[in-house]
Amino acid sequence: MTRFLDLVRPAAGTVLMSEWLTGTAERSRAAADAVMDEWAAAETPSGRLAQHVFLSTDGTGLLFYAQWTSDEDHLAWARANRARAVSHIDTLVPGIDRPGLARSRLTRSVVHDTERPAGVFVVSTIAVDEVEVSVALAPGLLAAHVHMTSDGAQAMVVAEWTNAASHAAVTTGGVGFKRYTLYRAFDDDRR
Prior knowledge:
Layout (H helix, E strand, L loop, with lengths): L13 E8 L3 H17 L6 E9 L4 E8 L2 H22 L4 E15 L8 E8 L3 H5 L5 E9 L4 E8 L2 H7 L6 E11 L4
Antiparallel strand pairs: 1-3, 1-4, 2-3, 2-8, 4-6, 5-7, 5-8, 6-7
């Protein structure tokens, strides 16, 4: 599987993460394909650098990870185009629950192993004072990528693990995270 740093665009001034809850793996794939097909067919918005879609390993949803040059560029696009784009997706896959959009910025990456492939990405939202624990070396943890929310109140960590079993072996409780695999990536290299 692709490593997370291969997806990072250095020019990104903002990272947007949005989970869509679809209920089934089939609906998740249909929604992801519809969004990515629309991105590919549409004119490239000023400021959008890349869009990546991750499917949850439990089949209940997907996560969009979008990189834009700035919040302003994204907001200008959203005001002009978001309603039409979402309406089209909702026609194809009705009933998607969208809990919200998190604006963040990748602030640092801690890479423990550059050789082994990532088998699963684990995304969690944590308190800022818990970041050091989440990036500490653990069996199977390949890397952790810390994103600070725009208000600085929370951190969103995208961790790369060798597999779900290695993550489960060191995780207690199972609350506050979701496991994903990369489904599709779209980089705006058409400029």
